[in-house]
Amino acid sequence: MNKICNHCQNQFEINEQDLTFYDKVSPIINGEKLALPPPSLCQYCRQRRRQLWRNERKLYNRKCDLTGKQIISVHAPDCQYKVYEQKAWWSDQWDDLSLGRDFDFSKTFFEQYKELMKVAPRSALWNVDPENSDYNQSTGWLKNCYLMAAANRNQDCYYGNYVNDCRDCVDNLMIKNSELCYECIECEECYDCAFCKNCNGCQSSQFLISCIGCNNCFGCVNLQRKQYCFFNEQLSKEEYEKRLSEIRTNSYTVVEKLKEVMQEKALQFPHKFMIGSRNENVTGNSIFFSRNCESCYDVSKLENCKYAMWFHDAKDCMDVFAWGMPAELCYDSMEVGGGAYQNLFCATCNGCKYAYYATQCMFSEHIFGCASLRRRKYCILNKQYSQADYEALLPRIIKHMQTTGEWGEFFPLDTAPYAYNETVAIEYYPISKEEALHLGAKWKEDQSSSAYQGPEIKVPDDIHEVSEDICKNILTCEKCQKNYRIIQQELQFYKNHHFPVPHLCPMCRHQNRLNRRNPRRLWDRSCMKCNIPLKTTYAPERAEKVLCESCYSKEL
Question: Going by DSSP bridges, is the β-strand pair 11-13/2-4 parallel, antiparallel, or unpaired?
Answer without folding.
Answer: antiparallel
